[in-house]
Every structure is written in structure tokens, then in C-alpha cells.
From TrEMBL:
It holds the Pfam family SBP_bac_1. It comes from Nostoc piscinale CENA21. The chain crosses the membrane at residues 7-26. One of its GO terms (biological process) is maltodextrin transmembrane transport. This is Sugar transporter. InterPro entries: SBP. Belongs to the bacterial solute-binding protein 1 family. Keywords: Membrane, Signal, Sugar transport, Transmembrane, Transmembrane helix, Transport.
Length: 415
């Protein structure tokens, strides 16, 4: 009897122990699971699908981290700034280089220097892109992708008028544009007059968009020389057109529809043109030199960390994966975005890709799309007045002086 009771007693003890262990195991695993919130703006459906796939790969490799991905589809920066003020911002979020100077100066972003270890190989990033997210000797963001601008030209139109190679200087581009316009009964060149597409022309004659204090200075004599090229081609040559002149919504669209034979666009135009206008025969080239200088623009976006994040270690794990070699290769492998790591670009062969090679080459001499802490004041005033000058409603000098004065008055009020 005693022997049987002992076994029963042991059985009960073991059952209780198993139940106790099972009861506590689940809460323990749940406690270790960290949720990191990531926010970005809405891109194309292809981009959204790809990012979610990359995030799934990250979660598979980091079972203790769950990523809550949020798309902010409207007024992205206004939403982010409001949440930062209210301590409700995501742990990690997209930050465009244009908006970076202001946020980096406001002590709301976590410096990443102490997280970056030698194995991460920060030297692998394109210097021009990384510098856009540096402030007072600290790195605040790691660029996830980029695009420069290149010349897109219709090879069939070129052949029809006897042109065999793309223009290499701006004077050649104007000459080509005139020839294409007269012989094809279409515009030779599609012009996008906003500052984001004109800043490198200002720089070509040693002009500046802003001075060291962040005030607008694009009305200088040097700056006007680059901008005058645009005015002359539009007004005198009559060989260029704006998108509104030909009833389209973008430079890529007016080129794809055959309304213009040449246009200056970014990497994003390649998949768009291939998918939307599959019969279009086109090629790309580096932008023609201006004043014997190579020039283009570069646009980039980084992942940054909220300084108030409660999960900084996990947030860094996410950032380092997305901008590490493996994550970046998955993100940029389809070609809709260019990798910011030189090794990844080389692995994917973009430096030899017939359409993307000019875009990759341009990053070494590109002008970053970054115009101080108050970009809206500078950009909006420039765009409004430059279009007015382009349409002949006022002189270029008068327009730029008016824009510069208004922009600087607004900046003074915001400082």
C-alpha cells in the first residue's frame, strides 16, 4: 500500500510541476517580445509589397522583435512633427534629406554613432548620401536608397532626325532640342521648372541656393546664369515644354506619351516607363555638362530613430538590418530603387546596367536636395516666381529677387 501511495504522490507532484512550467513558459516568451513601430509614406503597391516582404524576413531572423508598420498617406511630415511633440512618434521612421536639417537640429532624433560597430561597415555607404544625415559631427540617419537625375531620350526619335548619340553639353542639348522640335512636330525637351530640378544649374556657375546661415541667395548674378539657360530655351528656342503645356502630370508621362523627345528624370522613371509604355524605345545618359562642369541632383531618404523610443536596441536592430548589406540587397534587387551601399550596387550590377549606369555615376558629383532648416519657404517662393519668369510675366532677375526676399522674410519669422 505504501509503495502505491508513493507512486501516486510522485505522479501528482510531476503533474503539478509540468503544469507550473507550462503555465509560466508562455508569459515569459510574451514578455521578451518587443514591438517596434515603423512609419513611412505611401509608395507604389510594388514598393509596399516589397517592404513588407523584407520586414517579414527581418522578423523571421529576429523572433523576439515584431514590426508594426504604419503607412502615413497624407501630410507625412506634419504628422511626424506633431507626434514628436506629443511623444507619440514611431520608434523608426522615414526622413527625407530635404527635411533632415530641421529635425536634426531639434534634439528629437537619436544619434546613431554609438550603435554603429565596425562590422556594420559605415564606409560602404556613398559619402554624399550619408553626409545628408550628419549634423554637428553625429550621424542621425542611414540612407535606405536614392536616385540621381539622368537624361532620358527617345532613341527612335533620335534616329529619325539623324542623331546617334546623346548630347554631352547643354549647348548640344539645346541644339538637339531645336532639331527634334522642328522635324518631329513635337517638343524636343520636357522642362520641370521647380527648384528640385534646377539647383544644380545654379551651382554650375558657382551660385548658391542658400548661404551658410540658411538664407536664400539664388538671386545672385552667378545663380541667374544657370537659370537663364532654361528661360532662353523655353522662350527663344521654343523647343521645350512644361507638363502643363502638353496636358500631362509628370515629366515621365510627357516623355512616355511621346509629347517630348528628351526629359530629365530619376531612377523611378525606368520601371514606370517600362510598365506603362512597353513599346517605348528609350535610353539614358549622364546629364550634359553646364559651364564645363558635370552636375545632377541626388534625392535620398533615411531611416531614423526617435530619441524618445522605449525600444532603442530593437529599433537599431531593425535599422541595421534594413540598411545592412543583406536587407538592402533584398530591398533594391528589383531595380525600383538604387542601393546606398557601394558593395550592394556592385553585387546587383547597377554600375553596368545600361539604363541605370548614368544614374549611379552621377552620385559622385551630385548636388544633394537639401536647402537648410526651412525648405518650404525657399522652395515655394522659388517655384512660384520662376514659373512666372518662364512664362514671360516678369524678368528672371525681378522674379528671383522677389522670391528671395519673400523666402528670407518668412525664415526670419520662423527662427
Amino acid at each position: 500500500m505504501k509503495r502505491i501511495n508513493l507512486w501516486k504522490f510522485l505522479g501528482v507532484v510531476i503533474a503539478i510541476a509540468i503544469a507550473f512550467i507550462g503555465y509560466h513558459r508562455l508569459p515569459l516568451a510574451t514578455t521578451n517580445l518587443v514591438t517596434v513601430k515603423l512609419s513611412g509614406w505611401a509608395g507604389s503597391q510594388v514598393e509596399q509589397k516589397l517592404l513588407r516582404q523584407v520586414l517579414q524576413d527581418f522578423e523571421a531572423q529576429h523572433p523576439n522583435i515584431k514590426v508594426k508598420y504604419e503607412v502615413i498617406s497624407d501630410q507625412y511630415m506634419d504628422v511626424i512633427k506633431t507626434r514628436l511633440i506629443g511623444d507619440a512618434a514611431p520608434d523608426v521612421f522615414y526622413l527625407d534629406a530635404l527635411e533632415a536639417p530641421f529635425l536634426m537640429s531639434q534634439n528629437v532624433l537619436e544619434p546613431l554613432d554609438n550603435y554603429i560597430q565596425p562590422a556594420f561597415n559605415i564606409e560602404d555607404f556613398e559619402v554624399t548620401l550619408l553626409n545628408s544625415f550628419k549634423y554637428q559631427n553625429h550621424i542621425y540617419g542611414l540612407p535606405k536608397d536614392y536616385s540621381t537625375l539622368a537624361l532620358f531620350y527617345n532613341t527612335k526619335s533620335f534616329t529619325v532626325v539623324g542623331l546617334n548619340t546623346p548630347p554631352t553639353t547643354w549647348s548640344e542639348l539645346r541644339s538637339y532640342s531645336q532639331k527634334l522640335t522642328s522635324k518631329l512636330n513635337k517638343y524636343g525637351f520636357g522642362e520641370l521648372p521647380e527648384l528640385a530640378r534646377q539647383a544644380y544649374k545654379i551651382k554650375a556657375f558657382d551660385g548658391q541656393v542658400i548661404d551658410e546661415s540658411g538664407y536664400a541667395t539664388f538671386a545672385s548674378e552667378q545663380s541667374l546664369q544657370g537659370l537663364q539657360l532654361v528661360i532662353d530655351q523655353y522662350q527663344k528656342d521654343k523647343s521645350s515644354a512644361q507638363k502643363s503645356d502638353v496636358g500631362t502630370n509628370s515629366g515621365s508621362e510627357m516623355f512616355g506619351q511621346g509629347k517630348v523627345a528628351m526629359v530629365i528624370e530619376g531612377n523611378w522613371a525606368i520601371p514606370y516607363l517600362q510598365e506603362t509604355f512597353p513599346q517605348l524605345e528609350f535610353a539614358t545618359a549622364e546629364l550634359p555638362t553646364i559651364n564645363n562642369q558635370k552636375g545632377t541632383m541626388v534625392f535620398t531618404v533615411a531611416y531614423v530613430m526617435n530619441k524618445q523610443s522605449q525600444h532603442k536596441a530593437a529599433a537599431w536592430e531593425l535599422i541595421s538590418y534594413l540598411t545592412g548589406k543583406a536587407g538592402m540587397q533584398k530591398w533594391t534587387a528589383t531595380g525600383f530603387a538604387l542601393p546606398t551601399r557601394k558593395s550592394v550596387a556592385q553585387n546587383l550590377g547597377y554600375d553596368k546596367d545600361i539604363l541605370r549606369k548614368p544614374l549611379v555615376a552621377g552620385v559622385n558629383y551630385a548636388t544633394p536636395w537639401q536647402i537648410g532648416k526651412y525648405p518650404a519657404a525657399i522652395m515655394n517662393n522659388f517655384d512660384n516666381q520662376f514659373v512666372s519668369a518662364l512664362l514671360g510675366q516678369q524678368s528672371l532677375q525681378q522674379a528671383m529677387l522677389k522670391a528671395q526676399t519673400a523666402a528670407n522674410q518668412q525664415i526670419k519669422l520662423m527662427e
